[in-house]
Amino acid sequence: MFKLSSTEKYRSEVHIWMVDLNMEVDELPHFLSQDEWRRAEKYHHEKSRRTFLACRYALRKLLSSYTQLLPTELELVFNNHGKPALSPHQNTIGLSFNLSHTDDLACIAIASHMEVGVDIEEVKLLSEEMEEMIPTFMNQQEINKFRSIRSNRELFFYHIWTQKEAVLKAMGTGLLSDPTVIKAHTTAHAAIRNLSLEGWVINTYAISSHILAVCTKHEAQPLFFKFERDFIQKHLLFHHS
């Protein structure tokens, strides 16, 4: 069983599990709910369908380890904006979680007694369509900063995007709220550590060709793990009871 433990009054661990979505999964029929299977069947593209199934498989396996409930016993509920959570009668240890994926990589953030939001994006060349999106999520100050940059404009773009997305997901609203009202940190690199952002706390990381942002209500200590099908054995050294 994995545990999240408080180290200080306002400091706690956030476990971030990195998931390779190309992994072969042969246990799916024994892990997912009927509703999840129905949702998967609505995807028209096979890749999107497999991504959804792999993400839900990893999430259920992880939550099972933290709660000691069988993956099929876990009951997920959703707020008015679609953010999932454990059913209150099962969540006796105050777990919160959030999931994000891009292409073949996903991350699942798990915290205790505080909301968490996470976003991961692969840094790619900006298309014309993405350039057109800038006024929809950057405020004027951020737009001016973006236009003044002569190199690594993509890094700045995704750094701003992931910060705002992580905050909105921690709030539980996602992009249904206006991202432009959030004033992101316009730093020259993607390494923010426990800085305040709109009443929340943000940490950002550059991981290979990706930018990852994790948002929590209080100062946090993110710890990274690699998810594998037999992760319980491989990661038993980390915070086991």
Describe the SSE topology:
Layout: E1 6-8, E2 11-20, H1 34-41, H2 46-67, E3 76-78, E4 84-86, E5 95-102, E6 105-112, E7 116-122, H3 128-137, H4 140-148, H5 153-171, E8 195-197, E9 200-207, E10 210-216, E11 220-227, H6 231-234
Parallel strand pairs: 2-11
Antiparallel strand pairs: 1-2, 2-6, 3-4, 5-6, 7-10, 8-9, 9-10
Helix pairs in contact: 1-2
Task: Give a short summary of the structure.
With 241 residues, the chain is α+β, with helices and mostly antiparallel strands. Helices cover 30% and strands 28% of the residues.
The number of distinct β-strands equals 11
SSE order in H/E notation?
A: EEHHEEEEEHHHEEEEH
Low-confidence stretches: 233-241
Task: Indicate the proportion of strand residues.
Answer: 25-35%
CA radius of gyration: 18 Å
Please state the average pLDDT score. Answer: 86
Shape annotation: globular
Class per helix and strand makeup: alpha+beta
What oligomeric state do the depicted chains represent? single chain
- How far apart the termini lie comes to 6 Å
Q: Helix segment count?
A: 6
Main sheet makeup: 5 strands, mixed
Q: Tell me roughly what share of residues is in helical segments.
A: 25-40%
